Amino acid sequence: MTIMNGFELHYLSFVYAQEFSSKNNNLGGQMKHIIALASKIAFTLALLYVILDRVYHASFLSVMFIALFLGFVSYLSGDMLVLPRTNNITASLADFGLSFVILWVFVLTQTRNDFSPFGAALLSAACLTVFEYFFHRYLLKNVLDENFRNELSARDNTLQYQTEAADELFPETKEKHKE
């Protein structure tokens, strides 16, 4: 029986981890999305708790429900549909609009109206948009696969300018000049 030193043990664990990840490559991609979604919901809950519960006195259960709903909807629509087809700024603005509308309806229906629901929704959506900008950067760097990142960078860096050349609609002919 031989005793392994730290380097050999680290190397063997690295080799086994590589074999496991190559066999379960799809599982690793799914796990990245689950971790990203869970962190998004957790941060959304923390942010909405501070703004809506502490400042505007909404119930914690309502804030937790809206954080779950908003997290799922914005992850599926903004992060998985809009972000891959556009850029970070456009996806963040789309998330702002979506979260503003959802939060405005929530604040109108679930809280006491001794404050401006528009202001509460606007403040919450603006804070969430700042978080979304950095979250999108994280998604592009760590969660979305490398092929997608290469396609995105190639698409953004190769501008294709096109011009159109055509003849005139009614060209002047020599016969018309003689008249």
Detailed description of the structure:
The protein has a domain at 29-144. The radius of gyration is 26 Å and the shape is elongated. With 179 residues, it is mainly α. Helix content is 79%, strand content 0%. Residues 4-24 have low confidence and may be disordered. The chain crosses the membrane at residues 33-53, 63-83, 89-109, 115-135. Keywords: Cell membrane, Membrane, Transmembrane, Transmembrane helix. InterPro entries: DUF2512.
SSE diagram, text form:
Elements (H helix, E strand, L loop, with lengths): L5 H18 L1 H31 L4 H26 L2 H23 L6 H27 L2 H12 L16 H5 L1
Helix pairs in contact: 1-2, 2-3, 2-5, 3-4, 4-5
Keywords: Cell membrane, Membrane, Transmembrane, Transmembrane helix
Membrane topology: Multi-pass membrane protein
Pfam families: DUF2512
